[in-house]
Amino acid sequence: ARLNKKVWQTVVLSVLIAGVVLALSLWLTPRQQPSGVVPGGGELGSAPGPSPSGPSAPVQSVPPPPGFPPTAGGLALVEVKEGREALAEISRLHGTQIEGERGWILTYSDGRGRAVVWISEAKDEGVAREQVAEMLKKMEKSKTFTPPQPLGIPTVEMYQTSGLNQMHFFWAKGRRVYWVSADQVADLMPVMKDVLHKM
Q1: What is the DSSP letter of 124?
Q2: What are phi and psi of 122, to 5 degrees?
Q3: What SS3 state is found at 129?
Q4: Helix (H/G/I), strand (E/B), else coil: 133
Q5: In terms of pLDDT, which residue wins out, 11 or 169?
Q6: pLDDT per residue over 134-154, tens digit each?
Q7: Strands in 83-175 per DSSP E
């Protein structure tokens, strides 16, 4: 009886040790992030991944382009891309070459959280709406983003999705198409309010 008890205790101890080793190995192994989609592959492209987490770091603001705010929801403007450079990156986000006359990519941050605002300006409102419709169609089959959900805002037809460990919002307003990617932002509502009313 003593032998059986000793064997049983050894088995239980071995199982416990194996469980601890497995838990530690899973905890220490970095999680693989979703890979971006190759532009032109028939699926909506990918936005940049999230900014690293950690203590808040000082940020250095940059001057805004004409007509854009220096802050959004308390986040400072830290990077600006315009013109062809912006349109090229926006086309990558769409996964195809878009018809845009002007483009901007504005990055706002407080040193920890980050919101990136992608804006393309089409030749007219109809083209802008068509671009959003095309995005919705592509995202139905996307493996990177969740199915877009309408937010039911009376003044603008805005959609929300998630992917790449970020929240994303997109909509058309006038001739412009907007896409906002946000991660580690403590309070997103003031950011979205400023994007809607100041851009």
Answers
A1: S
A2: -85, 175
A3: helix
A4: helix
A5: 169
A6: 999 988 888 899 999 999 998
A7: 102-109, 114-121, 149-150, 159-163, 166-173
Q: Which of 178, 180, 175 is nearest to 191 (CA)?
A: 180
Per the document, the length of the chain is 199
Which tens digit of pLDDT belongs to each residue from 82-116?
Answer: 999 999 999 887 777 887 889 999 999 999 899 99
Please, what is the average pLDDT of the chain?
A: 77
SS3 131: helix
Token output for 195:
């994007």
- Distance between CA atoms of residues 193 and 19, nearest Å: 48
Backbone phi, psi, residue 126, to 5°: -60, -45
Burial degree of 73 (CB within 10 A; 0-12, 13-18, 19+):
buried
Give me the pLDDT at residue 1, please.
54
Give pLDDT tens digits for 28-52: 233 333 333 322 333 455 555 554 4
Copy the structure tokens of residue 179.
Answer: 């896409």
Q: Hey, what's the torsion of the CAs at 47, 173, 196, 83, to 10 degrees?
A: 50
Residue type, 193: K
What pairing do the DSSP bridges indicate for beta strands 75-82 and 102-109? antiparallel
